[in-house]
């Protein structure tokens, strides 16, 4: 028994030794080290180190639903109006990459937005987004002009040692509708433009910035009576016994030449912030159209530098409630209406976009007119003032109240000069070639009542209530009232007198039944559900 056991143990030992030798002859692989994602605490919550790199990255985004109601005053054929509701779904992706260097933080930030909009203007579609190529409209009898798909490169910039380069919010802006859901007040708010800027920190919260910015995203069309995709402004090029006898047309499309120059002085302290902004904005048009037979009198129209200034202050009021704050802001500009933000809500896709469906008369937002006697650009003036207050009723509930007033006026004599040009052109053309942009012959009834180049003003007031039951979730509702008006006189009511611009002779003769107006208004309500992550 003991012998048998010894044999078995010996055999086992021999096999084990043989197996160990065989195992020793095989190559032994080394397990790869696992690269765990590490938290990066240097730049705040949400950042992590990219594996294998010294760059910290934060991935974030947003999902939003909006629904809105807006009063509408017309369902006239051909107006594409009558929508009272609209809806929007929005997605947003953010990538924020930061690396610490010997010169400070190197940052790259990108944001992509996409959305689907339907229905009423203000919620369902945006002329400004169409103008800059971010929105694409649907086709079809019931969908055209009422459905938009939006893809927008909202941000793509680099920051390094005081330098900001890429697509970012304009440095000119201050309040930029911070407390509003819909951006209804008058005031500058260009969230996406192409720029190259340098900011110098001067100490004690004071900084100065010089920014070179893309002028296209601040551009409003030069007034052209013909309007449309190929705007043209008439200029007199021939005279008989001192009186204009022939005209040519100035190409009204602006060219990409000088950038906008923006200077900012800003103060940030515990009590809040204050900012002074100034900007220049070139206005230019093309030459006299070919084939006029008289291109020597007005070879071209010299460009003009528009300008704008803005001042704003934000005051934190924690003594009322934690998070409370008040914004006050005012802006004034010449030939730079987009900097004062007078057309912030409707945008400037055209020279007279409608703020209200079935609007009684148009507001003309043009930065300048072309003097038909000299061919020179005459700049318009505009100003805006806005106030907004945010109050926290509790950590979960907050409200904002806001209001603004703005006005725009054209150069003295600009409307009279355009009326003189209208008289000659309509006589030679044998009718009204300008449609609702017609000024009319000075001294006639139609001239007194036409809407083109009238000085206008605008008043906005609104409030909101937002509930945040959990972190990064907002459920809110906002309502606001907008009123537009003429600074003087009356204008043809386009809703009540839709055929007026085809009956100018009858209006002047007093045989056309005409309705007029001095102001128009609209009320809107917007609901939003938004989750940030």
Give a quick rundown of the structure.
With 533 residues, the chain is mainly β.
Structural summary, described in words:
The structure is a single chain. It contains six helices and 24 strands. It is mostly beta strands and 533 residues long. β20 and β21 (473-486) form a beta hairpin. The chain starts with a helix and ends with a strand. Mean pLDDT is 87; it is low at 1-24 and 290-297.
Q: What Rg, in angstroms, do the CA atoms define? A: 32 Å
Elements, N to C (H/E): HEEEEHEEEEEEEEEEEHEEEEHHEEEHEE
Structural class: mainly beta
Counting DSSP E segments of at least 2 residues, the number of strands comes to: 24
Output mean pLDDT.
87
Biggest sheet: strands, sense, closure?
Answer: 16 strands, antiparallel, barrel
* Tally of DSSP helical segments: 6
Helix residue percentage: 10-25%
**N-to-C terminal Cα separation, in Å?**
76 Å
Strand order of the largest sheet: 2-3-4-6-7-8-9-12-13-14-15-18-19-20-21-24
Q: Poorly predicted ranges (pLDDT <50, ≥5 residues)?
A: 1-24, 290-297
């Amino acid at each position: 028994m003991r012998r048998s056991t010894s044999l078995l143990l010996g055999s086992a030992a021999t096999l084990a030794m043989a197996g160990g030798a065989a195992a020793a002859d095989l190559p032994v692989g080394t397990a790869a080290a696992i690269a765990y994602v590490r938290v990066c605490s240097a730049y705040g919550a949400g950042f992590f180190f990219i594996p294998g790199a010294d760059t910290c990255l934060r991935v974030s985004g947003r999902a939003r639903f909006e629904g809105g109601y807006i009063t509408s005053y017309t369902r006239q054929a051909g107006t594409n109006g009558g929508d009272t509701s609209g809806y929007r779904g929005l997605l947003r992706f953010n990538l924020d990459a930061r690396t610490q260097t010997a010169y400070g933080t190197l940052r790259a930030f990108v944001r992509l937005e996409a959305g689907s909009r339907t229905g009423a203007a203000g919620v369902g579609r945006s002329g400004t987004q169409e103008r800059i190529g971010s929105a694409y409209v649907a086709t079809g009898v019931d969908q055209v002009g009422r459905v938009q798909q939006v893809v927008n490169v909202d941000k793509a910039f680099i920051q390094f040692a005081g330098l900001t380069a890429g697509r970012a919010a304009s440095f000119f802006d201050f309040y930029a509708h911070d407390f509003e859901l819909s951006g209804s007040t008058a005031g500058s708010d260009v969230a996406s433009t192409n720029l190259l800027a340098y900011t110098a920190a001067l100490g004690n919260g004071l900084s100065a910035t010089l920014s070179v910015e893309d002028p296209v995203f601040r551009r409003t069309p030069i007034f052209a009576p013909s309007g449309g995709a190929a705007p043209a402004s008439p200029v007199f090029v021939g005279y008989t016994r001192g009186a204009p006898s022939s005209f040519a047309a100035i190409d009204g499309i602006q060219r990409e030449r000088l950038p906008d120059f923006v200077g900012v002085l800003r103060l940030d302290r515990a009590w809040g912030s204050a900012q002074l902004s100034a900007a220049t904005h070139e206005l230019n048009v093309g030459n006299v159209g070919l084939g006029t037979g008289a291109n020597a009198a007005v070879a071209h129209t010299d460009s003009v530098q528009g300008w704008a200034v803005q001042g704003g202050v934000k005051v934190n009021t924690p003594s009322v409630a934690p998070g409370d704050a008040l914004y006050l802001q005012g802006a004034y500009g010449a030939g730079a209406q987009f900097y004062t933000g007078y057309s912030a809500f409707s945008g400037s896709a055209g020279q007279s976009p409608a703020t209200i469906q079935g609007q009684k008369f148009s507001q003309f937002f043009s930065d300048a007119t072309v003097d038909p006697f000299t061919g020179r650009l005459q700049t318009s003036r505009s100003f805006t003032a806005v106030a907004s207050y945010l109050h926290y009723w509790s950590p979960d509930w907050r409200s904002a109240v806001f209001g603004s007033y703005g006005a725009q006026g054209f150069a003295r004599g600009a409307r009279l000069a355009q009326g003189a040009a209208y008289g000659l052109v309509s006589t030679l053309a044998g009718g009204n070639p300008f449609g609702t942009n017609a000024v009319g012959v000075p001294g006639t009834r139609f001239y007194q009542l036409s809407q083109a180049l009238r000085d206008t003003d605008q008043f906005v007031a609104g409030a909101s209530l937002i509930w945040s039951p959990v972190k990064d979730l907002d459920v809110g509702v906002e309502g606001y009232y907008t009123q537009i008006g003429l600074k003087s006189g009356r204008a043809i009511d386009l809703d009540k007198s839709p055929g007026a611009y085809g009956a100018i002779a009858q209006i002047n003769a007093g045989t056309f039944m005409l309705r007029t107006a001095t102001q128009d208004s609209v009320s809107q309500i917007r609901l939003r559900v938004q989750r940030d992550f």
